Amino acid sequence: MLITWVLTVLAAVVVVLTRVRLSKEDGAAAGRISIPHSVLNLHTIAGVPALLLWVTYLVTKIEVLGWIAIVLWWVTAIAGLLVLAHVGLLIGVVIFTAFLALGKLA
Fold first, then answer.
1. What's the pTM?
2. Measured CA distances, 41 to 3, 12, 15, 33, 86 (Å)
3. Helix or strand or coil: residue 34?
């Protein structure tokens, strides 16, 4: 269960820092790449509710919330792969999905 909370915190950091770092319009930063705002918006719009629903699921154990959160986490992870190749978030989502599907979070 501890690994789930650690990965949840790391996923929150990824969603927030991706938004903060890539939403700046100053453009000339080192290592700056051009990302379509629609993909960045999708990453944020799916990531924030995924985080909120996932934390709610972890606290309440209402399974339908967990599955909705997993769907949103997958959307976030795919958008993250399009944005910055967030392989770490993808691995976290795979672990979340496996734990939820196997009932390891109950």
1. 0.71
2. 28, 15, 11, 16, 15
3. coil
CB 69 within 8 A of CB 101: no
Per-residue tokens: 28: 């000339």
Q: Kindly report the average pLDDT of the chain as a whole number.
A: 83
Cα torsion angle, 66, 67, 68, 69, sign = positive
Confidence bin at 61 (pLDDT 50/70/90): very high
Residue 16 banded pLDDT, cuts 50, 70, 90: confident
Under a CB-based contact definition with an 8 Å cutoff, are residues 47 and 77 in contact?
A: no
Question: Quick one: 58 exposed, middle or buried, by C-beta within 10 A (0-12, 13-18, 19+)?
Answer: middle
Amino acid identity at 15: V
Please calculate the CA angle 29-87-45 and round it to the nearest 5 degrees. Answer: 70
Q: Are 50 and 69 in contact (CB under 8 A)?
A: yes
